[in-house]
Every structure is written in C-alpha cells, then in structure tokens.
Amino acid sequence: MSGLGRCVALLPMKANSQRVKGKNFRPLHGKPLFSWILDSLLAIAEIDQVVINTDARAILAENGLVDSDRVLIRDRKAELCGDTVSMNLILADDIATVGADTYVMTHTTNPLLSAETVHAALERYKDGITAGTADSLFTVNRIQTRFYRADGSAVNHDPDNLIQTQDLEPWFEENSNLYIFSRDSFTSTNARIGRKPLLYVMDKMEAIDIDTPEDWALAEAVASLRGYTAR
C-alpha cells in the first residue's frame, strides 16, 4: 500500500505467563487466545508478514500453527527469555532481522482488537507520515473522570467547583493494544513510541488487554455479548 511500503506485524508470544497460566494458548470463547489477534492480522491486506518471536514453537505446532508464506516463527534467543526482559529488546531483535518500512506491534492478549481498527490506524499513521506530522502511532483509551492522589487530594479537578465529568479535560491511557512505527522511529527512542506519536482512541471494550483472571472473564463476556464465533 502506498505510504506504508513493506508492512510487518510483530506478535511476540511466550510459553509461560505469570497471572493467567498458559493464557496465550488457552481457549477463549472457542479458540486459542493467540488465534484471535493472529486471524485479525492475517485479514489485513496491508500486512505482508506476521513475525512471531517465541519460546513456544512446539506449543504453536500442537495448535496447528507453523511457518507459512505470511507467518514467520522466530525462536526467541535464550538471553531474551524470561518475565523480566524488556519487550523493547525483543522488538529490537526482530527489527534487526526482519526488514520493513512499517512495523505493526500488538499482543496475543488483545483478542478483540479488530482488523478494521488496525486498518484504520494504519491509514491514520500513513497520513501522519505523509504530512510529516508524526513518526509513530499508539492506541489509547480516552478517560474523563475525577482522579485523586493517595492522600485524597484532587489531581485533575476542583472539588469545590464540580463540573460534569464529560466537561473535564480528557486524559489518554496507553492501552497496549497497537503500536505502529518505522525502523528509524524505533531507533530514535529505542521504543515503540517515537518522538512525534499519534494517539488513536479505541472503543474500550475492544481494547480489553488480558493480564488477570478478571480480564479474561471480561473478554469472554464481551466476546459472547458481541456474538463473536470461532473461525
């Protein structure tokens, strides 16, 4: 697609997880968790290849996933395995090995992130790159509510002059669903978010990120509510 060049999606995936055991391969509403986002990525014509950096090649094979013309499974280096390794180090290893003009990065823990949202975010990113106003993009949740510090003092509002929450200044929460960047942008910050990022607001239910058993239950409920079916 003009403006994106070669586009590669980075989908890191590890065998173990700390709070929800084996979650990447556990069935969610009829299919393994990793399949949800992988299916969405493969449905996007702009994405030339999905790169899975993993220590779980055998588990993926047990679930029917092997290398193909659009899926490249990379065995994670021993020094990059473990729960405390920075994700940026894993991404840097992929970027150094797999060339692309545009990188899309997401997680297996974002099962409800849709192909339509990724496509729209790519369009927004392309426009920002073309205009020279942006070098990266990441997704956020828009929040307008009253925040307090631990000592009870107000952060973003005046308790003596309450206004409707919809009239408060919006705050934006990084939701860990989607990042889009180039090699140059990543190199400039050693991170997924560049120096001139675009913020892309997502639907909060689509943006569910599974870290805890409660998140898993919520994702199951939303998938059922919205009528998702395994495919």
Word description of this protein:
By secondary structure, this protein is of the alpha/beta class. The chain is built from 6 helices and 9 strands. The strands form 2 sheets. The chain has a 7-stranded mixed beta sheet with strand order 5-4-1-6-8-7-9, with helices on both faces. Strands 2-3 form a two-stranded antiparallel ribbon.
Entry keywords:
single chain; 231 residues; alpha/beta; seven-stranded mixed sheet; two-stranded antiparallel ribbon; 6 helices; 9 strands; 28% helix; 20% strand; globular
Q: Major sheet: order of its strands?
A: 5-4-1-6-8-7-9
Mean pLDDT: 94
Rg (C-alpha, Å): 19 Å
Shape: globular
**Percent of residues in helical segments?**
25-40%
Question: What are the low-pLDDT stretches, counting only 5+ consecutive residues below 50?
Answer: none
Instruction: Kindly report how far apart the N and C termini lie.
Output: 27 Å
| Beta fraction | 15-25%
> How many E strands?
9
Helix/sheet category: alpha/beta
The number of helices is 6
Q: How many strands, which pairing sense, and closed or not: the largest β-sheet? A: 7 strands, mixed
**From N to C, what is the helix and strand string?**
EEEHEHEHEHEEHEH
SSE inventory with pairings:
Layout: E1 7-10, E2 27-28, E3 31-32, H1 33-42, E4 49-54, H2 57-62, E5 71-75, H3 87-97, E6 102-105, H4 115-131, E7 136-143, E8 171-181, H5 183-189, E9 197-201, H6 213-225
Parallel strand pairs: 1-4, 1-6, 4-5, 7-9
Antiparallel strand pairs: 2-3, 6-8, 7-8
